[in-house]
Amino acid sequence: MPPADSRIRVKRQDNITQVEFVDRNILDEANIQMIGEDISRLIDAEQNPKLVISFANVEHLSSAALGTLITINNRIRTRSGQLRLANIDPQIYEVFVITRLNKLFQIHESVDDAVKSLA
Amino acid sequence: MTDAHPTPDSARLLVINQPGHIDRAQDQIVAAAERHHYPKASIFALRLSLQEAVSNAFRHGHKDLPPSTPVAIEYDVADARIRVAIQDQGPGFDPSSVPDPTLETNLEIPSGRGLFLMKAYMESLTYNASGNRLEMVYRHPGHEPN
Q1: What is the pLDDT of residue A9?
Q2: Chains A–B, number of C-beta pairs less than 8 Å apart
Q3: Which of A1, A78, A72 is nearest to A32 (CA)?
Q4: pTM (2 decimals)?
């Protein structure tokens, strides 16, 4: 589990780790670094990690957040795991489209859909 | 953050690279844009571009300077357009040297998307000759260019 002052909330169900963000804005570089470290610890704690990241509360994000997602994706792959993104606001999804990262990540409408895709 | 010439819709701000400083500057400019009835999509574009511009100024422009070295932000918000200039005290850079992050070979590289996103969301981005001052202009979606 992440530390008490973590900027993420974590739920574990059926061998799938679900992460959501505490903050509406994922902009600040220090916070983004902390989020990356917390999620990396979750990945490293498992063999073949299955991770769903929900953006349900997120209204703004920066390129530093995208970079952290790429680093997380690369880390999961090295551990033969799988990453899904879910609940992305249309404006934020547009950022993924502009940067073509919608081609790199598997993005689902809802956490339920993302979890089903990992079953 | 210091506020040298505060006015409701235009000002020159000095921000240092500390938690809260960049946020407060962003909030001040966003508040001015909201007073001028810029829609939610514009606020999204503005906040994202401000974040990228100031982050780049500190991460790249000020990488060899003390953390207390301020970045200057000048903004002017009008009904038809928003103009923001960000100036760092570093040696500058050549924006044309930044590779296209959407190329297949660059997709998995974690960095290098800030400038690309600003170009996508702003009407114009202009660097000075030395590359340490960026001026960006955003046009209100309801206003045609003159």
Answers
A1: 95
A2: 60
A3: A72
A4: 0.92
